Amino acid sequence: MKSDIGIGIDKVSALVRNGTALRSNQQVLEAEQLKTEQRRIELAANRKGLLDILSLFLGQELPENVVLQQPTSDSDKLTATISRPELKLFAYQDSLFRVQEKMVSVKNRPRASAFFQGGYGRPGLNMLDNNFDFFYIGGLRINWQLGGLYTAKKERQILALNQQMVGVAERCISSQYQYTAEAQEAELKKLQQLIDTDQPLLICAKK
Question: Which of 37, 45, 52, 58 is paired with 23 by a 20 to 30 Å CA distance?
Answer without folding.
Answer: 37
